[in-house]
């Protein structure tokens, strides 16, 4: 049926033939649709089970009485099967006793290390306030006991659960390495993982919970006691530790290569950065992969080169399959060998969830290929996806699964059919040119191509006098060009299909992804085997690994050079909001149409597949309106933990961001492994559909207000950066330099300055014109703004303390409908006389849950209550949104969108 539909070339017949020809593919996407349905609608498993029984009976009746209509109940059956599996899958939950004891009190815990990273120091330092390097190590500990303190006793009690400890050494201390399998005792303040309750923000707590981690803590090295190696009854450490230790040992061998290759020329020498990239690429150890190394790969959409992903596993599997084919190993044993080696490599690289999923995908694909041969790649993919989703329905919502699935479906469903009917026949026609009898079996246009090739080969032979030029060089050259065309088609199809997940999960469209990946992907096919050989030799001797290391270095430098060439051009990296549901639905519909059109025989209709695919990408990146009230001033207090970040959107869509959050307090800068501006503030803005900010204001130069602003400047390119009177410390100067690099005008403001922001008016209340900051940033440096819309207004205090508040009491027009309480609700701010003059209806306090400063202080909350001011606190409420109607009313709501 499928062949007939293709020959006739009609859209309707191709659609019918496609359903019959790839039943498992359609079963897979219907099953996935049922899983997706449970994300929007909860369905009782018992009701679903009854419905499944009734639908099964309906399918049997339709098969007997109306076979042509069987597909309707069958489709519904697969959808309900997906929903039932999703509802029946258990959700990960924290270990309750441990979760209850994760309250920030200093407790002693004892347990076994189940995962240990290497000590970070010189390669990726953590930095203290003075800039000194502080070594640290991350370990996961499966607890056996925890300290419980009550009025009657102080004792260790048995508890189950896993905690993630970050062990830090002080300046001058010599770090020691804690290995997987050791038993340790440590004293720390356990807390649940930080969760930022903002729309669009990454949920780190859910991520750690998926790894079985209930609580986290940072402990000082002197509070860690090593109790020896935990052993099983066999006397051997358990196998995850053996694999983890092997991974880190292999990474250490690669990191030792720079010292062994000092005398080699630069292009053939593995540098320290090269070794770090190779360790991440081959062993999966990304401990030392800094932001500076990542940024170019992220901007060019080639970060997959640096991580062990499905692509790397597929290359390893393909390399083993190629060797097995060369050795003429039969199909079934070759498949088993490929799966076994892929499984071993996945274990060695850490067996992370994306790698596990890629392994199952590769394994099921190879098994499915044995069953279906290679007649229907889509059917084989459907078989693999169906097995994966049955085993773990929740994986459908994970980015890695969606991106892997989208890539293989578009290659098999669009690229392969397009190439099969265009480039592939001509590529095959270049083989055995002297066999004229083959011509009659080919399509006329392909036969004509062979005749032309034969004529050109004859002329080249007469012109050069060499039979080899015409018989070998010419066909090889043509095949190479056609192979490049195939690579271009596959890369272009995948890049267009990746537009949606790139925008949804990474808010990024990379203009250079196509040219970079066009070279990176073929390069990886050679680089990965070379890197693996280098690793295997390095395990024997780093000195012997210099020779394969030189080949690896040359290949790596080509790829890195290309990435850095394009990655340095920031304008090629576009950041944008995620599409709305209508855009996602439109993308999926156009992608399905492209798959259907690519299978048609008629050339004109087949070319329409390109139009549908390009239209799908355009729909995914189409601009969307900013979500905000059209008749009110929006004030959103973004949940950035212990810090400040507030968004203001005027009724006519003008935007102002005040502060960008950060880590800690005082001058300490953000940890290098987590950028709150990139991970929290920017997603909150993108969730509203914001692409560009009209202005950004910095209250003062403490890191909990300034830490996220560099990323905000890069992502949203504001027209202006408003600053007060800040001391010229290095982080502040770096922010000003970033603004200059983004062509953002820096405006220094003082009390009395006024600006217009769309329908709103902004007035500066502090700092006073004669204010002189100290050598280091302080709370009283704060830029205090009053934003008014009609008769309503919001006063943004920053961290202004009592002296600044007293100075503002002398100014007129201090009354405000909404107050952003100064200094996170500390007793140093919000004095009764100041609250009396401001006379707000609502107040909002931005602070972190269980912060070490005790914010907000009970005294401040009582003062606000005494003044009849309703108060929202981000540590309790999460992100809080307020609508100021321009009269006297202010409405507070959650910010879920």
TrEMBL record:
User: What name does the UniProt record give this protein?
Assistant: ComEC/Rec2 family competence protein
Provide a GO CC annotation, any one.
plasma membrane
Keywords in UniProt for this one?
Cell membrane, Membrane, Transmembrane, Transmembrane helix
Q: Which SMART domains match?
A: Lactamase_B
Principal location listed in the UniProt entry: membrane
Return any one Pfam family short name. Answer: DUF4131
Q: Which PANTHER family match?
A: DNA INTERNALIZATION/COMPETENCE PROTEIN COMEC/REC2 (PTHR30619), RECOMBINATION PROTEIN 2 (PTHR30619:SF1)
């Amino acid at each position: 049926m499928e062949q007939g539909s293709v020959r006739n070339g009609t859209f309707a017949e191709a659609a019918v033939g496609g359903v019959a020809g790839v039943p498992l593919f359609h079963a897979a996407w219907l099953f996935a649709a049922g899983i997706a349905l449970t994300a929007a609608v909860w369905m009782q498993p018992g009701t679903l089970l009854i419905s499944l029984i009734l639908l099964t009976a309906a399918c049997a009746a339709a098969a007997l009485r109306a076979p042509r209509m069987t597909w309707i109940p069958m489709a519904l059956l697969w959808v309900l099967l997906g929903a039932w599996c999703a509802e029946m899958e258990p959700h990960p939950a924290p270990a309750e006793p441990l979760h209850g004891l994760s309250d920030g009190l200093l407790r002693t815990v004892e347990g076994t290390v189940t995962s240990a990273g290497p000590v970070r120091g010189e390669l990726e330092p953590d930095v203290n306030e003075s800039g000194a390097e502080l070594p640290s190590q991350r370990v996961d500990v499966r607890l056996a006991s925890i300290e419980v303190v009550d009025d009657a006793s102080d004792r260790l009690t048995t508890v189950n659960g896993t905690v993630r400890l970050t062990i830090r050494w002080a300046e001058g201390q010599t770090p020691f390495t804690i290995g997987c399998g050791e038993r340790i005792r440590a004293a720390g303040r356990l807390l649940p993982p930080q969760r930022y309750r903002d729309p669009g923000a990454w949920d780190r707590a859910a991520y750690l919970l998926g790894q079985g981690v209930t609580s986290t803590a940072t402990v000082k090295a002197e509070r860690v006691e090593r109790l020896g190696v935990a052993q099983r009854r066999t006397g051997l450490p358990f196998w995850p530790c053996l694999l983890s230790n092997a991974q880190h040992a292999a990474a250490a061998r690669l990191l030792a290569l720079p010292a062994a290759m000092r005398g080699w020329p630069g292009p053939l020498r593995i540098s320290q950065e090269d070794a770090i990239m190779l360790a991440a690429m081959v062993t999966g150890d990304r401990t030392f992969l800094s932001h500076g190394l990542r940024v170019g790969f992220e901007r060019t959409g080639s970060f997959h080169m640096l991580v062990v992903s499905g692509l790397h596993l597929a290359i390893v599997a393909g390399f083993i399959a190629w060797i097995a084919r060369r050795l003429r190993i039969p199909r079934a044993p070759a498949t088993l060998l490929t799966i076994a080696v892929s499984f071993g490599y996945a274990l060695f690289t850490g067996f992370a969830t994306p790698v596990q999923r890629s392994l199952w995908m590769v394994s099921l694909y190879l098994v499915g290929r044995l069953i279906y041969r290679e007649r229907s790649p889509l059917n084989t993919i459907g078989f693999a996806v169906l097995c994966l989703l049955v085993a773990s329905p929740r994986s459908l919502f994970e980015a890695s699964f969606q991106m892997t699935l989208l890539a293989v479906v578009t290659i098999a469903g669009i690229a392969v059919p397009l190439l099969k009917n265009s480039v592939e026949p001509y590529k095959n026609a270049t083989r055995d040119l002297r066999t004229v009898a083959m011509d009659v079996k080919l399509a006329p246009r392909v036969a004509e191509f062979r005749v032309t090739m034969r004529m050109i080969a004859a002329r080249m032979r007469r012109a050069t006098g060499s039979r080899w030029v015409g018989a070998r060089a010419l066909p090889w050259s043509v095949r190479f060009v056609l192979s490049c065309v195939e690579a271009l088609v596959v890369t272009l199809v995948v890049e267009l299909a990746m537009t949606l997940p790139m925008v949804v999960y990474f808010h990024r469209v990379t203009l250079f992804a196509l040219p970079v990946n066009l070279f990176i992907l073929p390069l990886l096919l050679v680089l990965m085997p070379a890197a693996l050989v280098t690793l295997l030799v390095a395990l024997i001797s780093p000195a012997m690994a210099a020779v394969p290391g030189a080949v690896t270095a040359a290949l790596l430098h080509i790829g890195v050079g290309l990435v850095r060439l394009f990655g340095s051009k920031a304008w090629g990296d576009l950041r944008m909001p995620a599409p709305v549901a209508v855009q996602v639905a439109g993308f999926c519909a156009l992608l399905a149409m492209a798959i259907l059109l690519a299978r048609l025989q008629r050339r004109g209709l087949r070319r329409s597949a390109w139009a549908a695919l390009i239209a799908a990408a355009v729909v995914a990146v189409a601009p969307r309106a900013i979500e905000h009230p059209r008749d009110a001033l929006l004030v959103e207090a973004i949940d950035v933990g212990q810090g400040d970040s507030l968004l203001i959107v005027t009724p006519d869509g003008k935007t102002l961001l005040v502060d960008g959050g950060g880590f800690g307090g005082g001058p300490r800068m953000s940890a290098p492994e987590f950028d709150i501006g990139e991970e929290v503030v920017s997603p909150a803005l993108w969730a509203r559909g914001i692409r560009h900010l009209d202005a950004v204001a910095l209250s003062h130069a403490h890191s909990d207000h300034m830490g996220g602003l560099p990323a905000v400047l890069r992502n949203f390119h504001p027209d202006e950066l408003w600053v007060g009177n800040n001391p010229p410390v290095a982080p502040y100067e770096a922010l000003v330099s970033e603004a200059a690099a983004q062509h953002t005008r820096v405006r220094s403001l003082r009390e009395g300055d006024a600006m217009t922001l769309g329908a709103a008016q902004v007035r500066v209340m502090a700092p006073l014109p004669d204010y002189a900051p100290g050598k280091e940033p302080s709370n009283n440096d704060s830029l205090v703004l009053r934003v008014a819309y009609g008769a309503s207004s919001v006063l943004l205090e920053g961290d202004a303390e009592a002296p600044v508040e007293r100075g503002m009491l002398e100014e007129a027009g201090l009354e405000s409908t909404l107050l952003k309480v100064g200094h996170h609700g500390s007793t140093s701010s919000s004095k009764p006389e100041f609250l009396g003059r401001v006379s707000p209806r609502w107040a909002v306090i931005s602070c972190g849950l269980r912060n070490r400063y005790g914010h907000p202080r009970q005294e401040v909350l009582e003062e606000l209550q005494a003044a009849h001011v309703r108060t929202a606190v981000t540590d309790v409420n999460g992100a809080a949104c307020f609508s100021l109607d321009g009269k006297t009313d202010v409405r507070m709501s959650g910010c879920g969108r």
